[in-house]
Protein backbone atom coordinates (compact mmCIF):
# COMPACT_ATOMS: atom_id res chain seq x y z
CA UNK A 1 0.00 0.00 0.00
CA UNK A 2 1.57 3.26 -1.07
CA UNK A 3 -0.01 5.94 1.06
CA UNK A 4 0.33 9.37 -0.52
CA UNK A 5 -0.47 12.90 0.39
CA UNK A 6 -3.93 13.66 -0.55
CA UNK A 7 -6.77 15.88 -0.66
CA UNK A 8 -5.29 18.43 1.16
CA UNK A 9 -3.31 16.20 -1.02
CA UNK A 10 -5.96 14.01 0.58
CA UNK A 11 -7.16 11.97 -2.35
CA UNK A 12 -3.64 10.66 -2.90
CA UNK A 13 -3.37 9.78 0.74
CA UNK A 14 -6.54 7.76 0.60
CA UNK A 15 -5.94 6.37 -2.86
CA UNK A 16 -4.28 3.09 -1.91
CA UNK A 17 -6.72 2.16 0.83
CA UNK A 18 -8.79 0.51 -1.80
CA UNK A 19 -11.86 -0.09 0.35
CA UNK A 20 -11.64 2.93 2.61
CA UNK A 21 -14.56 4.84 3.96
CA UNK A 22 -17.05 4.65 1.15
CA UNK A 23 -16.20 1.06 0.35
CA UNK A 24 -16.92 0.18 3.96
CA UNK A 25 -20.18 2.10 3.83
CA UNK A 26 -21.29 0.75 0.47
CA UNK A 27 -20.85 -2.87 1.36
CA UNK A 28 -22.46 -2.16 4.74
CA UNK A 29 -25.53 -1.04 2.80
CA UNK A 30 -25.86 -4.48 1.30
CA UNK A 31 -24.24 -7.06 3.54
CA UNK A 32 -27.08 -7.04 6.01
CA UNK A 33 -29.44 -7.94 3.16
CA UNK A 34 -27.33 -10.47 1.32
CA UNK A 35 -26.62 -13.98 2.52
CA UNK A 36 -23.12 -15.24 1.86
CA UNK A 37 -22.59 -18.56 0.18
CA UNK A 38 -24.59 -20.31 -2.50
CA UNK A 39 -24.29 -19.77 -6.20
CA UNK A 40 -20.54 -19.21 -6.15
CA UNK A 41 -18.43 -20.56 -8.97
CA UNK A 42 -16.03 -23.40 -8.49
CA UNK A 43 -12.65 -22.22 -7.16
CA UNK A 44 -10.05 -21.45 -9.78
CA UNK A 45 -7.21 -23.77 -8.79
CA UNK A 46 -4.11 -21.89 -7.75
CA UNK A 47 -5.60 -18.43 -8.36
CA UNK A 48 -5.45 -17.48 -4.68
CA UNK A 49 -2.53 -17.93 -2.32
CA UNK A 50 -3.17 -17.57 1.42
CA UNK A 51 -2.15 -18.99 4.75
CA UNK A 52 -5.81 -18.67 5.82
CA UNK A 53 -7.98 -21.53 4.46
CA UNK A 54 -11.21 -19.53 4.71
CA UNK A 55 -9.80 -16.59 2.77
CA UNK A 56 -8.28 -18.90 0.18
CA UNK A 57 -11.60 -20.70 -0.36
CA UNK A 58 -13.82 -17.61 -0.47
CA UNK A 59 -11.49 -15.51 -2.62
CA UNK A 60 -10.95 -18.47 -4.95
CA UNK A 61 -14.70 -18.79 -5.44
CA UNK A 62 -15.13 -15.10 -6.18
CA UNK A 63 -12.08 -14.30 -8.28
CA UNK A 64 -13.07 -15.71 -11.71
CA UNK A 65 -16.43 -13.95 -11.65
CA UNK A 66 -14.84 -10.71 -10.42
CA UNK A 67 -12.34 -10.70 -13.28
CA UNK A 68 -15.05 -11.37 -15.87
CA UNK A 69 -17.33 -8.62 -14.53
CA UNK A 70 -14.43 -6.18 -14.43
CA UNK A 71 -13.57 -6.91 -18.07
CA UNK A 72 -10.03 -7.87 -17.09
CA UNK A 73 -7.83 -10.93 -17.54
CA UNK A 74 -6.66 -12.88 -14.51
CA UNK A 75 -2.98 -13.41 -15.29
CA UNK A 76 -1.42 -14.62 -12.06
CA UNK A 77 -2.30 -15.75 -8.52
CA UNK A 78 -3.51 -13.24 -5.91
CA UNK A 79 -2.19 -13.34 -2.34
CA UNK A 80 -4.75 -12.71 0.43
CA UNK A 81 -3.89 -12.42 4.12
CA UNK A 82 -5.28 -11.05 7.39
CA UNK A 83 -3.78 -8.19 9.42
CA UNK A 84 -4.54 -6.89 12.90
CA UNK A 85 -5.75 -3.37 13.54
CA UNK A 86 -2.54 -2.71 15.49
CA UNK A 87 -0.41 -3.80 12.53
CA UNK A 88 -2.37 -1.47 10.28
CA UNK A 89 -1.98 1.52 12.60
CA UNK A 90 1.76 0.98 12.88
CA UNK A 91 2.06 0.76 9.12
CA UNK A 92 0.03 3.94 8.58
CA UNK A 93 2.12 5.88 11.08
CA UNK A 94 5.28 4.84 9.28
CA UNK A 95 3.82 5.83 5.91
CA UNK A 96 2.68 9.21 7.21
CA UNK A 97 6.17 9.88 8.52
CA UNK A 98 7.61 8.88 5.15
CA UNK A 99 5.21 10.63 2.78
CA UNK A 100 3.51 13.40 4.75
CA UNK A 101 6.18 14.72 7.15
CA UNK A 102 5.10 17.34 9.72
CA UNK A 103 6.42 20.35 7.76
CA UNK A 104 4.52 19.42 4.63
CA UNK A 105 1.36 18.59 6.56
CA UNK A 106 1.54 21.98 8.26
CA UNK A 107 2.08 23.87 4.99
CA UNK A 108 -0.75 22.00 3.27
CA UNK A 109 -3.15 22.69 6.11
CA UNK A 110 -2.12 26.35 6.18
CA UNK A 111 -2.83 26.79 2.48
CA UNK A 112 -6.31 25.27 2.80
CA UNK A 113 -6.97 27.33 5.92
CA UNK A 114 -6.10 30.53 4.04
CA UNK A 115 -8.73 29.54 1.46
CA UNK A 116 -11.25 29.04 4.25
CA UNK A 117 -11.59 25.31 3.70
CA UNK A 118 -10.30 24.11 7.09
CA UNK A 119 -9.63 25.57 10.51
CA UNK A 120 -6.17 27.07 11.07
CA UNK A 121 -5.40 24.71 13.96
CA UNK A 122 -6.24 21.53 12.03
CA UNK A 123 -3.83 18.69 12.83
CA UNK A 124 -3.88 17.06 9.41
CA UNK A 125 -1.72 14.08 10.28
CA UNK A 126 -3.77 13.21 13.36
CA UNK A 127 -7.02 13.54 11.41
CA UNK A 128 -5.80 11.31 8.61
CA UNK A 129 -4.64 8.65 11.03
CA UNK A 130 -8.04 8.74 12.79
CA UNK A 131 -9.88 8.44 9.49
CA UNK A 132 -7.76 5.54 8.32
CA UNK A 133 -7.96 3.54 11.50
CA UNK A 134 -11.72 4.13 11.65
CA UNK A 135 -12.47 3.27 8.04
CA UNK A 136 -10.05 0.71 6.72
CA UNK A 137 -11.52 -2.76 6.55
CA UNK A 138 -9.08 -4.03 3.96
CA UNK A 139 -6.72 -2.86 1.26
CA UNK A 140 -4.81 -3.98 -1.77
CA UNK A 141 -1.10 -3.18 -1.64
CA UNK A 142 0.44 -2.76 -5.11
CA UNK A 143 3.96 -2.75 -3.68
CA UNK A 144 3.66 -6.39 -2.60
CA UNK A 145 0.78 -7.36 -4.94
CA UNK A 146 -1.14 -8.62 -1.93
CA UNK A 147 -4.64 -8.10 -0.57
CA UNK A 148 -5.04 -7.66 3.18
CA UNK A 149 -8.22 -7.77 5.28
CA UNK A 150 -8.50 -6.71 8.89
CA UNK A 151 -8.97 -9.64 11.23
CA UNK A 152 -11.81 -7.85 13.06
CA UNK A 153 -14.18 -8.01 10.09
CA UNK A 154 -17.42 -9.95 10.70
CA UNK A 155 -18.06 -12.94 8.43
CA UNK A 156 -21.08 -11.30 6.77
CA UNK A 157 -18.91 -8.37 5.64
CA UNK A 158 -16.02 -10.44 4.36
CA UNK A 159 -17.45 -11.34 0.97
CA UNK A 160 -18.22 -7.74 -0.01
CA UNK A 161 -14.80 -6.63 1.16
CA UNK A 162 -13.07 -9.32 -0.87
CA UNK A 163 -15.14 -8.51 -3.95
CA UNK A 164 -13.98 -4.90 -3.91
CA UNK A 165 -10.33 -5.64 -3.20
CA UNK A 166 -10.10 -8.50 -5.69
CA UNK A 167 -11.06 -6.05 -8.44
CA UNK A 168 -8.01 -3.98 -7.47
CA UNK A 169 -5.82 -7.08 -7.50
CA UNK A 170 -6.92 -7.90 -11.05
CA UNK A 171 -6.64 -4.24 -12.11
CA UNK A 172 -3.03 -4.24 -10.93
CA UNK A 173 -2.27 -7.19 -13.22
CA UNK A 174 -3.38 -5.07 -16.18
CA UNK A 175 -2.10 -1.59 -15.25
CA UNK A 176 0.30 -0.25 -12.65
CA UNK A 177 -1.99 1.22 -9.99
CA UNK A 178 0.86 3.00 -8.24
CA UNK A 179 1.92 4.63 -11.48
CA UNK A 180 -1.62 5.81 -12.29
CA UNK A 181 -2.07 7.45 -8.87
CA UNK A 182 1.49 8.71 -8.41
CA UNK A 183 1.50 11.99 -6.51
CA UNK A 184 4.08 13.41 -8.89
CA UNK A 185 1.35 13.55 -11.54
CA UNK A 186 -0.43 16.22 -9.49
CA UNK A 187 -3.27 16.11 -7.03
CA UNK A 188 -6.12 16.49 -9.49
CA UNK A 189 -4.82 13.98 -12.02
CA UNK A 190 -4.13 11.40 -9.32
CA UNK A 191 -7.63 11.98 -7.91
CA UNK A 192 -9.20 11.38 -11.32
CA UNK A 193 -7.33 8.10 -11.76
CA UNK A 194 -8.28 7.09 -8.23
CA UNK A 195 -11.95 7.74 -9.06
CA UNK A 196 -11.75 5.47 -12.10
CA UNK A 197 -10.05 2.73 -10.08
CA UNK A 198 -12.43 2.89 -7.12
CA UNK A 199 -15.55 3.50 -9.18
CA UNK A 200 -14.77 0.39 -11.23
CA UNK A 201 -14.32 -1.76 -8.11
CA UNK A 202 -17.43 -0.32 -6.45
CA UNK A 203 -19.66 -1.08 -9.44
CA UNK A 204 -18.41 -4.65 -9.74
CA UNK A 205 -18.88 -5.24 -6.00
CA UNK A 206 -22.38 -3.76 -5.79
CA UNK A 207 -23.59 -5.41 -8.98
CA UNK A 208 -22.49 -8.83 -7.71
CA UNK A 209 -24.14 -8.29 -4.33
CA UNK A 210 -27.37 -6.91 -5.76
CA UNK A 211 -27.69 -10.05 -7.85
CA UNK A 212 -27.31 -12.10 -4.69
CA UNK A 213 -29.92 -9.95 -2.97
CA UNK A 214 -32.51 -10.03 -5.77
CA UNK A 215 -31.82 -13.46 -7.23
CA UNK A 216 -31.71 -12.10 -10.76
CA UNK A 217 -29.18 -10.63 -13.17
CA UNK A 218 -28.37 -6.96 -12.57
CA UNK A 219 -26.69 -4.57 -14.99
CA UNK A 220 -25.80 -1.34 -13.21
CA UNK A 221 -25.04 0.29 -16.57
CA UNK A 222 -28.83 0.51 -16.97
CA UNK A 223 -29.47 2.34 -13.66
CA UNK A 224 -29.76 6.11 -14.29
CA UNK A 225 -27.27 8.24 -12.33
CA UNK A 226 -26.22 5.37 -10.10
CA UNK A 227 -23.28 7.30 -8.67
CA UNK A 228 -25.57 10.13 -7.60
CA UNK A 229 -27.81 7.64 -5.81
CA UNK A 230 -24.88 6.31 -3.80
CA UNK A 231 -23.99 9.63 -2.18
CA UNK A 232 -27.12 10.23 -0.05
CA UNK A 233 -27.16 6.59 1.00
CA UNK A 234 -23.55 6.80 2.15
CA UNK A 235 -23.99 10.17 3.83
CA UNK A 236 -26.96 8.74 5.73
CA UNK A 237 -24.61 6.24 7.37
CA UNK A 238 -22.01 8.74 8.56
CA UNK A 239 -23.16 8.53 12.17
CA UNK A 240 -21.42 5.14 12.16
CA UNK A 241 -18.16 6.88 11.26
CA UNK A 242 -17.56 9.71 13.76
CA UNK A 243 -14.10 10.68 12.50
CA UNK A 244 -15.45 11.15 8.99
CA UNK A 245 -18.58 12.94 10.20
CA UNK A 246 -16.54 15.50 12.13
CA UNK A 247 -13.98 16.10 9.34
CA UNK A 248 -14.08 19.33 7.30
CA UNK A 249 -16.42 19.26 4.32
CA UNK A 250 -13.56 19.31 1.82
CA UNK A 251 -12.17 16.14 3.35
CA UNK A 252 -15.51 14.38 3.52
CA UNK A 253 -16.48 15.15 -0.05
CA UNK A 254 -13.05 14.47 -1.50
CA UNK A 255 -12.93 11.14 0.29
CA UNK A 256 -16.33 10.05 -0.99
CA UNK A 257 -15.74 11.33 -4.54
CA UNK A 258 -13.83 8.28 -5.91
CA UNK A 259 -16.59 5.90 -4.85
CA UNK A 260 -19.67 7.95 -5.77
CA UNK A 261 -18.66 10.10 -8.75
CA UNK A 262 -16.11 7.47 -9.73
CA UNK A 263 -18.87 4.87 -9.89
CA UNK A 264 -20.97 7.28 -11.95
CA UNK A 265 -18.11 7.85 -14.37
CA UNK A 266 -17.49 4.13 -14.93
CA UNK A 267 -21.21 3.46 -15.20
CA UNK A 268 -21.44 6.08 -17.95
CA UNK A 269 -18.50 4.39 -19.66
CA UNK A 270 -20.23 1.02 -19.47
CA UNK A 271 -23.47 2.47 -20.83
CA UNK A 272 -21.75 4.12 -23.80
CA UNK A 273 -18.99 1.64 -24.67
CA UNK A 274 -19.93 -1.67 -23.03
CA UNK A 275 -18.27 -3.29 -20.03
CA UNK A 276 -14.80 -1.93 -20.63
CA UNK A 277 -12.26 -1.11 -17.90
CA UNK A 278 -11.52 2.61 -17.39
CA UNK A 279 -7.87 2.48 -18.40
CA UNK A 280 -5.71 3.52 -21.33
CA UNK A 281 -7.49 6.14 -23.43
CA UNK A 282 -10.52 5.84 -21.14
CA UNK A 283 -8.63 6.91 -18.01
CA UNK A 284 -9.67 10.43 -16.88
CA UNK A 285 -6.90 12.96 -16.32
CA UNK A 286 -8.87 15.48 -14.26
CA UNK A 287 -11.73 15.49 -11.77
CA UNK A 288 -13.62 17.66 -14.26
CA UNK A 289 -13.60 14.78 -16.73
CA UNK A 290 -15.02 12.52 -14.02
CA UNK A 291 -17.71 15.02 -13.03
CA UNK A 292 -18.69 15.98 -16.58
CA UNK A 293 -18.14 12.50 -18.12
CA UNK A 294 -16.16 14.16 -20.90
CA UNK A 295 -12.71 12.78 -21.64
CA UNK A 296 -12.10 15.30 -24.43
CA UNK A 297 -12.04 18.31 -22.09
CA UNK A 298 -8.40 18.34 -20.93
CA UNK A 299 -7.17 21.06 -18.54
CA UNK A 300 -3.99 23.06 -18.93
CA UNK A 301 -1.10 22.94 -16.49
CA UNK A 302 -0.73 26.34 -14.86
CA UNK A 303 2.67 27.34 -13.45
CA UNK A 304 3.27 30.17 -10.97
CA UNK A 305 6.74 31.73 -10.85
CA UNK A 306 7.54 33.80 -7.76
CA UNK A 307 10.51 36.05 -7.06
CA UNK A 308 11.17 37.70 -3.71
CA UNK A 309 10.05 34.77 -1.57
CA UNK A 310 10.44 31.04 -0.99
CA UNK A 311 7.73 28.61 -2.09
CA UNK A 312 6.84 26.43 0.90
CA UNK A 313 4.21 24.35 -0.81
CA UNK A 314 2.41 24.17 -4.15
CA UNK A 315 -0.50 22.18 -5.47
CA UNK A 316 -3.61 22.00 -7.65
CA UNK A 317 -7.13 22.23 -6.27
CA UNK A 318 -8.75 20.80 -9.39
CA UNK A 319 -12.34 21.11 -10.53
CA UNK A 320 -13.69 19.07 -7.63
CA UNK A 321 -12.14 21.19 -4.91
CA UNK A 322 -12.85 24.47 -6.71
CA UNK A 323 -16.49 23.45 -6.57
CA UNK A 324 -16.19 22.61 -2.87
CA UNK A 325 -14.47 25.96 -2.26
CA UNK A 326 -17.31 27.85 -3.93
CA UNK A 327 -20.01 25.94 -2.08
CA UNK A 328 -18.21 26.24 1.26
CA UNK A 329 -18.32 30.02 1.05
CA UNK A 330 -21.44 30.69 -1.02
CA UNK A 331 -23.67 27.63 -0.69
CA UNK A 332 -24.68 24.91 -3.12
CA UNK A 333 -26.74 27.33 -5.20
CA UNK A 334 -23.46 28.93 -6.36
CA UNK A 335 -22.00 25.66 -7.67
CA UNK A 336 -22.24 26.85 -11.28
CA UNK A 337 -19.39 29.29 -10.60
CA UNK A 338 -16.94 26.37 -10.91
CA UNK A 339 -18.18 25.41 -14.38
CA UNK A 340 -15.68 26.19 -17.09
CA UNK A 341 -12.64 25.52 -14.92
CA UNK A 342 -9.65 24.91 -17.16
CA UNK A 343 -6.76 24.28 -14.76
CA UNK A 344 -5.28 25.89 -11.66
CA UNK A 345 -2.33 26.04 -9.28
CA UNK A 346 -1.62 27.56 -5.90
CA UNK A 347 1.63 28.32 -4.06
CA UNK A 348 2.24 29.12 -0.39
CA UNK A 349 5.13 31.57 -0.20
CA UNK A 350 7.38 32.53 2.73
CA UNK A 351 8.08 36.28 2.55
CA UNK A 352 11.32 37.55 4.17
CA UNK A 353 10.63 39.74 7.20
CA UNK A 354 7.02 38.56 7.57
CA UNK A 355 5.62 36.10 10.09
CA UNK A 356 2.77 35.16 7.76
CA UNK A 357 3.01 33.40 4.40
CA UNK A 358 1.28 34.56 1.23
CA UNK A 359 -1.06 32.37 -0.80
CA UNK A 360 -1.17 32.87 -4.56
CA UNK A 361 -3.83 30.96 -6.52
CA UNK A 362 -4.31 31.17 -10.29
CA UNK A 363 -7.20 29.58 -12.22
CA UNK A 364 -7.46 29.30 -16.01
CA UNK A 365 -10.96 29.25 -17.50
CA UNK A 366 -12.36 27.86 -20.72
CA UNK A 367 -13.86 31.21 -21.71
CA UNK A 368 -14.04 34.83 -20.67
CA UNK A 369 -17.68 34.30 -19.75
CA UNK A 370 -16.76 31.52 -17.30
CA UNK A 371 -13.91 33.63 -15.90
CA UNK A 372 -16.10 36.69 -15.42
CA UNK A 373 -18.91 34.68 -13.85
CA UNK A 374 -16.51 33.29 -11.26
CA UNK A 375 -14.87 36.67 -10.67
CA UNK A 376 -18.19 38.39 -10.01
CA UNK A 377 -19.72 35.60 -7.96
CA UNK A 378 -16.68 34.82 -5.83
CA UNK A 379 -15.61 38.43 -5.24
CA UNK A 380 -17.63 38.81 -1.97
CA UNK A 381 -15.59 35.95 -0.46
CA UNK A 382 -12.40 37.99 -0.76
CA UNK A 383 -13.22 40.09 2.31
CA UNK A 384 -13.48 36.93 4.43
CA UNK A 385 -10.02 35.68 3.47
CA UNK A 386 -8.02 38.27 5.38
CA UNK A 387 -7.00 41.92 5.07
CA UNK A 388 -5.54 42.86 1.73
CA UNK A 389 -6.84 39.81 -0.11
CA UNK A 390 -7.32 40.60 -3.79
CA UNK A 391 -9.08 38.85 -6.66
CA UNK A 392 -8.53 40.06 -10.19
CA UNK A 393 -8.99 39.15 -13.83
CA UNK A 394 -5.87 38.23 -15.73
CA UNK A 395 -4.69 35.90 -18.49
CA UNK A 396 -2.33 32.95 -18.66
CA UNK A 397 -0.74 32.58 -22.08
CA UNK A 398 -3.76 34.42 -23.51
CA UNK A 399 -6.22 32.10 -21.75
CA UNK A 400 -8.74 33.87 -19.45
CA UNK A 401 -7.75 33.50 -15.79
CA UNK A 402 -8.25 34.87 -12.30
CA UNK A 403 -5.61 35.52 -9.68
CA UNK A 404 -6.33 35.37 -5.95
CA UNK A 405 -3.71 36.63 -3.50
CA UNK A 406 -4.15 36.25 0.26
CA UNK A 407 -1.62 38.11 2.39
CA UNK A 408 0.86 40.91 1.79
CA UNK A 409 2.46 40.19 -1.59
CA UNK A 410 3.75 43.71 -2.18
CA UNK A 411 7.37 42.52 -2.16
CA UNK A 412 6.72 39.60 -4.51
CA UNK A 413 7.02 39.44 -8.28
CA UNK A 414 4.44 36.91 -9.53
CA UNK A 415 4.15 35.66 -13.10
CA UNK A 416 1.88 32.99 -14.62
CA UNK A 417 2.33 30.70 -17.56
CA UNK A 418 0.81 27.57 -19.06
CA UNK A 419 3.31 24.77 -19.13
CA UNK A 420 1.27 22.34 -21.21
CA UNK A 421 -2.08 20.68 -21.72
CA UNK A 422 -2.34 17.76 -19.33
Protein model, in words:
The structure is a single chain. The protein is α+β, with helices and mostly antiparallel strands. It has a 5-stranded antiparallel beta sheet. Helix 2 runs parallel beside helix 6 (124-135), helix 9 (187-214) packs across helix 12 (249-273) and helix 10 packs antiparallel against helix 12. It has helices at residues 10-14, 20-31, 53-70, 85-99, 102-114, 124-135, 155-174, 177-180, 187-214, 226-235, 242-245, 249-273, 287-292, 318-330, 368-378; strands spanning 48-49, 78-83, 138-141, 146-150, 300-307, 310-315, 341-350, 358-365, 390-396, 399-406, 413-421. Helix content is 46%, strand content 17%. The protein starts with 9 loop residues before the first helix and ends with a strand. The radius of gyration is 22 Å and the shape is globular. It has 15 helices and 11 strands. Mean pLDDT is 86; it is low at 1-43.
Q: What's the short version?
A:
The protein is built from 15 helices and eleven strands. It is α+β, with helices and mostly antiparallel strands and 422 residues long.
Radius of gyration: 22 Å
Q: Report the strand count.
A: 11
DSSP strand content: 15-25%
Share in helix? 40-55%
Low-confidence stretches: 1-43
In DSSP terms, counting alpha (H) and pi (I) runs of 4 or more, how many helices?
15
Strand order of the largest sheet: 6-7-8-10-9
Mean pLDDT: 86
Global morphology: globular
SSE-based structural type: alpha+beta
Distance between termini? 26 Å
Tell me the series of helices and strands, N- to C-terminal. HHEHEHHHEEHHHHHHHEEHEEHEEE
Biggest pleated sheet: 5 strands, antiparallel
Amino acid sequence: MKVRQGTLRLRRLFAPVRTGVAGAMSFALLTGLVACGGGAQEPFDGAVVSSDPELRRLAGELLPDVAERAGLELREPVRVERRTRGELEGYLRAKLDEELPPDEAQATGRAYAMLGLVEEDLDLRALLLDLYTEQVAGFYEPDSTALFVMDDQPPDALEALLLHELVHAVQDQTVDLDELTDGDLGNDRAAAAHAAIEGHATLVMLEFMMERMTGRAVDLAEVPDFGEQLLPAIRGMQDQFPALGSAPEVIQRSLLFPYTQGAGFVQHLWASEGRVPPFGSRLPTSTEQVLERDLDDAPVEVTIDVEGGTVLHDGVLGRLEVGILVETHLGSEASELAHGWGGDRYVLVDVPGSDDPVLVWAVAWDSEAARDRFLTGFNPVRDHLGPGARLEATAVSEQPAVLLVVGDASSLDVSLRIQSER
